[in-house]
Design brief:
367 residues; alpha/beta; Enolase-like, domain 1; TIM Barrel; 2 domains; four-stranded antiparallel sheet; binds 2-succinylbenzoate; binds magnesium ion; O-succinylbenzoate synthase activity; Enolase-like_N
Length: 367
């Protein structure tokens, strides 16, 4: 594919309700979109970075810089084979996975359009629909959180995940469990704890959590292994897993029993498939994580989650979970039994990007 042009567009889309994690409180989804033009087609990618370096060291400023000054020069006015060969070319760049993934994702979209095959077909997906879970932020009071849980259970969400942080953990879990004794419940600490908190995590065992997501810091594979051996509840790694090598090490030393794959955190779909395959060989179920993305990223997540070892409910909600308006036609919408249909050339279902919606949300562009 000969790459004729690349645009970087920055958009802002307000959340309908503030989303608070252990690291910050989000009011607006500030995002970078990438458009890659080739042979009469446009491939779209969404950079999953945030306005600041909270979830990982990247933010939209650093991602923009890396995309513009290091990634675009690798492909612009060049004939490239596709997303996999692009990833090989990024070997010299340390970190900056979210920036790399944005371009890689756009190249998958371009490949899909040029070959007229769905992403599901290109990567060998097997599911026609995927199950949806909900991720709920830290709320001002327990009552607010219980109301939110009630609301999303009524919509049929298959798993309820609540964010925790030091000081807002055991009491919250206890309160939620008492109110909802039977729901599939998980917690996400976003790396806010250390092994000093081991007694706290032992206390979580009483509440029948399906897993604890990323309790310790991202680099603490060894400490996660110590923690996993001390508690019954499975650990699910998120931030710690950026590559198939991280995955191999985590599995070898028993740092987790489940992995959340975010293609953005792992440089894209190419590496995510390898992580998926290694987990499958080792009986480690995976699910698709989310970054409160807009429609472009959301739709690509749905396709990735069609691979066979994506066995648990995903953080790929309908767009209306976070936003009043989104940037795909149709909007990403959950079905009656709270699943999302995987776009596919077999069922003929596909999403288009809504350029007018992007125009309305645009705050700057670099073209
Ligand atoms: O750790 O999974 C996470 C949102 C922003 C940053 C990190 C995370 C999250 C979520 C929301 O939990 C997932 C979603 O619904 O997109
Ligand atoms: Mg997480």
């Amino acid at each position: 594919m000969f790459i004729e042009r690349v645009d970087i567009i920055r958009v802002n889309n307000p959340f309908t309700h503030p989303f608070e994690t252990s690291f910050t409180k989000f009011l607006v989804r500030d995002a970078l979109l990438i458009k890659i033009y080739s042979e009469g087609h446009v491939g779209y990618g969404e950079c999953k970075a945030f306005f600041g370096p909270f979830y990982c060291p990247e933010d939209n400023g650093t991602s923009h810089h890396i995309i513009k000054n290091f990634l675009i020069p690798l492909i612009l006015h060049k004939d490239i084979e596709g997303p996999e060969s692009f990833i090989e070319q990024t070997w010299f760049i340390k970190g900056n996975n979210l920036a790399i993934a944005a371009v890689e994702n756009a190249l998958w979209d371009l490949k899909s359009k040029i070959e007229n095959k769905s992403l599901k077909t290109l990567i060998g997906g097997v599911y026609d629909e995927v199950k949806v879970g909900v991720s709920l932020g830290i709320e001002p009071t327990l009552k607010d959180l219980l109301n939110k849980i009630d609301h999303y259970l009524a919509e049929g969400y298959h798993r309820t995940k609540i964010k925790i942080k030091p000081g807002r953990d055991l009491e919250v879990i206890k309160g939620v469990r008492e109110a909802f004794p039977d729901i599939v419940l998980t917690v996400d600490a976003n790396s806010a704890y250390s092994l000093k908190d081991i007694e706290l995590f032992k206390a979580f065992d009483e509440y029948n959590l399906a897993y604890i997501e990323q309790p310790l810091r991202e680099n603490d594979l060894i400490d996660h292994s110590v923690l996993q051996k001390a508690i019954e509840t499975p650990i699910c790694l998120d931030e710690s897993i950026e590559s198939v090598e991280d995955t191999r090490q985590a599995i070898e030393i028993g740092s987790c029993k489940i992995i959340n794959i975010k293609s953005s955190r792992c440089r894209g779909i190419t590496e995510s498939i390898k992580i998926h395959d290694l987990c499958m060989e080792n009986d480690i179920p995976v699910w698709c994580g989310g970054m409160t993305e807009l429609g472009i990223g959301r739709v690509q997540n749905i396709s990735l989650a069609s691979l066979p070892n994506f066995k648990l409910a995903h953080d790929i909600a309908g767009s209306n979970r976070y936003f009043k308006e989104d940037i795909t036609i149709p909007e990403v919408k959950i079905s009656k039994d709270c699943t999302l249909i995987v776009p596919d050339d077999v069922n003929g279902f596909k999403y288009e990007v809504d350029e007018d919606a992007i125009d309305k949300m645009m705050v700057s562009r670099d073209i």
